[in-house]
Specification:
heterodimer; A: alpha/beta; D-Maltodextrin-Binding Protein, domain 2; four-stranded mixed beta sheet; 4 strands; 67% helix; B: alpha/beta; Rossmann fold; Alpha-Beta Plaits; 2 domains; six-stranded mixed beta sheet; four-stranded antiparallel beta sheet; 13 strands
Chain lengths: 416, 299
């Protein structure tokens, strides 16, 4: 047991002390802090000047309401009545006196129409704002012309009263569903990213020991099974350290911006109403998913003899994760489809798909239990197989890595 | 603490790597393991260490199988050298030493004395990849002996070293032996084996062709060598009864005879022929024995 801890702490510390680990974390933390302050950063660049729009209003009665509604929606935009010809106004825009020039006139049926002139029309934000506000004025005028008064108009635009009610008492309510969806999203991404990142790290670590041939000394000192699991857990702890760091920093940053947010951090992510059981399922499936894929990665890592082959051998595993991820994305909208139901029992897909079903549907406990049992069994199976391949694979140095190698590794470690 | 290999056979599929090998290696001995490339030496070592399972037979050390419960008492220098290139010598040896059940401070003290002994004390904080191949090998050797093993297995310990380093490592091996370590080592270099081992075994195609103490092996071999330096033509000695092999040298010839009594016949035959500057009767070298016993596989 103590050798297990030696390997674990060695795996953790050597990774922890590398420069690349430090740099990755610093970059990630900068990104987190940056994202949390994204509004202030954008403001910093944009707050230089108020944007002025010259308006040439031929109708004479649209400018005033348009100015009011535009300046209410976009505080940094001011409309100015232009005294002069259209040509002069365009000239002024070119000389950057104004951000843009808007010419308004009456078209057919006495309804307003407008042309928008700016030096660049690549950024559509300003023209969209103007168009939307003018549209509202046009609607008001058109309905007025048709003899519909304000109260009738409001009646027309009133949304229909529509409520989705689940009859089964234990079914999720609309709010619970959207919150569960949020959590499912987060777990899906976490699982996807950590399986790919940390799975790769495990495979690389083992392949490194194999190519540097230090493996033969290692397996003569400590059993391959305990080494394999020490590596898997060591990297898992490293991942926890990393994610934990991000969460703590993210939480602190968000706390400081609390004044700008109503409600707590969990509400910010739409998670305040997620039930404890969903949360626990999330953790359980995350852990099981990590273990399953990490064991697979360890086994694959022990098969290669050159570091270049790691990526190639990891491809099938990455495809598995990707397939699970895409089915889950599809399943977010159709969690009840039988395709999702069936695939949620396939161990490599279970952590994502069964969790999705648990989070979004009301499924009987035995189904969840069954999928967990299947997963545990496949982890045990993979671990037993992995340990044998590991033991045989580390003594095997060949060129390619293929199914044949897999068989050979099994044979080398065979009990007679 | 005897290492006992009884009727061990190892098969990979149809291929027999080791065939019915039986050996006994007494405590505190240096045992030489010889054989052509592919004779099954490394496979045998891996079986002793428990890295490979035995197809038939058994290997016991001190009456027990070697596994992870007693692996702390065993040191291993694999033929394929390997250390973590990115780690410093200190971190490296600390990790490997702890895996053999040592405490960190003991390891550092022991490591320093070994580096002192190998005259490379400045390497303590150097990364492995910065060292020359020969110096890496010294570190590798230290990693095998840092925990003062009772049984030390050295697979080709001296290959790739310059003569000064070979002497240094040989001295270390002899010191370990005098401290009571049983040592098994393999080599292609007969003079190393002859110098260090009292017991040895020559493997060929997975089977032991010769085994026992060096003296007995030489005696049992029967044949002796006669070296003659003379000023006249010696080729007539080829036809003498009892002369097995004749090899002309620059100053005379080298004869292999099948019994030491034949040497006297040679001496008589030389009488009155001319001036003889040297006449010597010598034990066969291990090299002769190896070439005759294991060389058969190349013919």
């Amino acid at each position: 047991m103590s050798k297990f801890w030696i390997v674990l702490s060695h795996t953790y510390m050597t990774r922890f002390k590398t420069k690349s680990f430090l740099i990755t974390n610093i970059i990630a933390l900068l990104v987190i802090v940056g994202l949390a302050n994204i509004n202030s950063i954008i403001d910093l660049f944009d707050s230089e000047k108020d944007r002025q729009v010259a308006v040439l209003d031929e109708t004479g009665d649209i400018f005033a309401p348009l100015k009011e509604s535009v300046e209410n929606t976009a505080s940094d935009v001011t409309l100015e009545q232009y005294e002069g010809t259209a040509e002069e106004a365009k000239q002024a825009v070119e000389e950057e006196e104004y951000e843009a020039f808007l010419s308004i006139s009456y078209g057919e049926q006495n309804l307003p129409q407008a042309s928008y002139y700016a030096n660049q029309i690549a950024s559509s934000e300003l023209s969209n704002t103007l168009e939307q506000q003018l549209q509202q004025i046009k609607v008001a005028m058109a309905t007025n012309n048709a003899g519909i008064d304000q109260s009738q108009l409001e009646e027309i635009y009133q949304p229909v009263a529509f409520e989705a009610v689940a009859l089964k008492e234990s079914a999720k309510t609309e709010e619970e569903l959207s919150e569960a969806r949020g959590l499912v999203y987060i777990i899906l991404f976490l699982l996807y990213i950590s399986v790919i990142t940390y799975g790769n790290m495990i495979a690389m670590d083992i392949a490194n020991e194999k190519t540097s041939r230090v493996m033969e000394i290692l397996i003569s000192s400590a059993s391959p099974v305990s080494q394999m699991f020490a590596k898997i857990l060591g990297i898992a702890l490293l991942g926890l350290t990393q994610v934990g760091l991000f969460i703590v920093v993210g939480y602190i940053v968000l706390q400081q911006k609390q004044s700008e947010m109503t409600g707590g951090v969990f509400e910010y992510f739409g998670l305040s109403g997620v039930t404890a059981s969903t949360f626990i399922y999330g953790i359980v499936f995350f852990v099981l998913g990590y273990l399953l894929y990490a064991t697979l990665a360890a086994m694959l890592g022990s098969l290669v003899s050159r570091i270049e082959d790691v990526q190639q051998l990891m491809m099938p595993m990455i495809f598995l994760v990707m397939i699970a991820f895409f089915i889950a994305m599809f399943g977010l909208n159709m969690p009840e489809s039988s395709f999702v139901t069936v695939t949620s029992y396939i161990p490599f897909f279970t952590p994502m798909l069964m969790f999705l079903r648990v989070g979004m549907l009301d499924i009987p406990a035995w189904e969840v239990a069954l999928s967990i049992v299947i997963m545990l069994a496949s982890i045990a199976l993979l671990a037993a197989l992995g340990a044998r391949v590991y033991r045989g694979g580390v003594l095997m140095y060949g060129k390619a890595s293929s199914l044949k190698d897999f068989k050979k590794a099994l044979q080398l470690s065979k009990k007679s | 603490m005897t290492l006992k290999i009884s009727n061990v056979t190892k098969r990979f599929g149809d291929f027999t790597a080791v065939n019915n090998l039986s050996l006994e290696i007494p405590e505190g001995q240096i045992f030489g393991f010889l054989g052509a490339n592919g004779a099954g030496k490394t496979t045998t070592f891996r079986m002793i260490l428990g890295l490979l399972d035995i197809t038939e037979g058994s290997i016991d050390w001190d009456g027990k199988k070697i596994n992870y419960s007693n692996s702390d008492a065993i040191g291993y220098l694999p033929e394929e050298r390997g250390l973590y290139p990115k780690l410093t010598v200190k971190d490296q040896i600390i990790y490997l030493g702890r895996l053999r059940g040592m405490q960190k401070n003991e390891i550092v003290a022991e490591l320093k004395s070994w580096l002192e002994k190998f005259r490379v004390p400045a390497y303590l904080d150097k990364k492995i990849e910065e060292l020359s191949k020969g110096n890496q090998q010294k570190i590798q050797f230290i990693s095998a002996v840092i925990h003062r093993p009772k049984l030390l297995i050295l697979d080709e310990p001296f290959s790739g070293l310059d003569p000064v380093n070979v002497e240094m490592l040989k001295q270390a091996v002899v010191d370990l032996k005098s401290q009571g370590t049983s040592i098994v080592f393999s080599s292609h270099r007969m003079e190393h084996v002859e110098e260090l081992c009292e017991y040895l075994c020559i493997m060929q195609h997975g089977s032991p062709v010769v085994h026992g103490s060096l003296k007995e092996i030489k005696r049992a071999f029967g044949k002796k060598n006669v070296f003659i330096h003379a000023d006249f033509d010696l080729s007539f000695l080829k036809d003498l009864v009892g002369v097995v092999d004749y090899k002309a040298t620059t100053e005379g010839c080298e004869l292999q005879i099948n019994d030491e009594a034949v040497s006297q016949d040679v001496l008589t035959a030389l009488h009155d022929r001319g001036f003889v500057r040297r006449f010597a009767l010598e034990e066969p070298s291990l090299n002769d024995i190896f070439i005759e016993k294991a060389g058969a596989s190349y013919e």
